[in-house]
Amino acid sequence: MSGGPGRESAGGMPPAQPMPHHEGSATSAPRREDHEPSRWRSVWRQLPLLGALVLLWIMLWDHIDVLTVVTGVLLAIGVTRALYLPPVLLSGRFNPWRGLLLGLRMMFDVVSASVQVAVLAIWPWWKPMNSIIAVQLHTRSDLVTTLTAEAISVVPGTVVVDIDRERGLLYLHALGTRTAADVHRTRRHVLGTEERIVLAMGTHEQAASVRQERRERRAARTEEHR
């Protein structure tokens, strides 16, 4: 008999069917090292931190010799490797122009705030009204958060009292915050300091995010004035 489309082959077995082809079945899974940063790149980013710790050790001893440098290097490596601390990854980027603007603005803020605090201290009719203010930072970088907290605490009249690292919150004590406008001005000052630090030494992604937020704020202010 002539077989139809469903006929069986010799031996009573159905004819072999071609195996379905799945696209990408022969593609190997991405290697783990393609997604993880290079070990040498991580070490390179840690070098400035190690150098800063060695420099601090030398400054504490107030003289330079072979023993001081060697012990400083060993202690820096021990501190960064043995103690349970979150890794401080530097961005590997520094903008000299933005760094100069950051330094000039810091000097201006310190001088102007010092004059204001001095005037308030001798003003006989001034009644102090201070506040604890929570400020939500734009970034979650430990380095940017630490530098922002240090920069804010250096300026007279404000001091950081606590940091919520998980949520990126700074809690600071601010002098002379009698109205909501004073509180808003203090928050704006903190965020402006963070933005200048990011533009000077943050990563390219952080700098791009800060610039985008600045454009959005300017656009919102332009819409309000219309």
From TrEMBL:
<feature type="region of interest" description="Disordered">
    <location>
        <begin position="205"/>
        <end position="226"/>
    </location>
</feature>
<feature type="transmembrane region" description="Helical">
    <location>
        <begin position="66"/>
        <end position="85"/>
    </location>
</feature>
<keyword id="KW-0472">Membrane</keyword>
<feature type="region of interest" description="Disordered">
    <location>
        <begin position="1"/>
        <end position="33"/>
    </location>
</feature>
<dbReference type="InterPro" id="IPR002758">
    <property type="entry name" value="Cation_antiport_E"/>
</dbReference>
<keyword id="KW-1133">Transmembrane helix</keyword>
<comment type="similarity">
    <text>Belongs to the CPA3 antiporters (TC 2.A.63) subunit E family.</text>
</comment>
<protein>
    <submittedName>
        <fullName>Na+/H+ antiporter subunit E</fullName>
    </submittedName>
</protein>
<feature type="transmembrane region" description="Helical">
    <location>
        <begin position="106"/>
        <end position="126"/>
    </location>
</feature>
<keyword id="KW-0812">Transmembrane</keyword>
<feature type="compositionally biased region" description="Basic and acidic residues">
    <location>
        <begin position="211"/>
        <end position="226"/>
    </location>
</feature>
<dbReference type="GO" id="GO:0005886">
    <property type="term" value="C:plasma membrane"/>
</dbReference>
<dbReference type="Pfam" id="PF01899">
    <property type="entry name" value="MNHE"/>
</dbReference>
<feature type="compositionally biased region" description="Basic and acidic residues">
    <location>
        <begin position="20"/>
        <end position="33"/>
    </location>
</feature>
<feature type="transmembrane region" description="Helical">
    <location>
        <begin position="42"/>
        <end position="60"/>
    </location>
</feature>
<keyword id="KW-1003">Cell membrane</keyword>
<dbReference type="GO" id="GO:0008324">
    <property type="term" value="F:monoatomic cation transmembrane transporter activity"/>
</dbReference>
